[in-house]
């Protein structure tokens, strides 16, 4: 499960920042996850809960926002969004598309005391 390594790296960032800012209890972590990233939200939540134990994040709520994917046809320039990754433009049928959004995985912010 690569979600554990992803959350571990993100958690390390939060823990370092909390220490630097003398935050003794993190109450909420907002995570942005792109729909094309490939990480499963349920597994990210499970990993966060497991890795947060015995840290200043142990009682933190993980708030995940799923960022919609955005594609652009390299042939006609049409931009479109689709819940399932397809590599065909719905306007011209070309197979070459660029992913403009939807691969994100980052911490938007965290709150603490």
Percentage of residues in DSSP E strands = 25-35%
Q: Average pLDDT, to the nearest integer?
A: 92
Helix/strand class? alpha+beta
Q: Number of helix segments?
A: 2
CATH level 1 name of the domain at 2-68 and 102-112: Alpha Beta
Q: Which spans have pLDDT < 50 for at least 5 consecutive residues?
A: none
**Topology as a string of helices (H) and strands (E):** HEHEEEEE
C-alpha Rg, in Å? 17 Å
Tell me which CATH architecture of the domain at 2-68 and 102-112 applies here. Answer: 2-Layer Sandwich
Roughly how many Å apart are the termini?
32 Å
Shape: elongated
Instruction: Tell me about the largest β-sheet.
Output: 3 strands, mixed
CATH topology of the domain at 2-68 and 102-112: hypothetical protein PF0899 fold
Strand tally, please?
6
Helical residue percent band: 25-40%
Strand order within the widest beta sheet: 2-1-6
Q: Could you give the topology of this structure?
A:
Blueprint: H1 2-20, E1 26-34, H2 41-52, E2 61-67, E3 70-73, E4 79-80, E5 97-101, E6 105-112
Parallel strand pairs: 1-2
Antiparallel strand pairs: 1-6, 3-4, 3-5
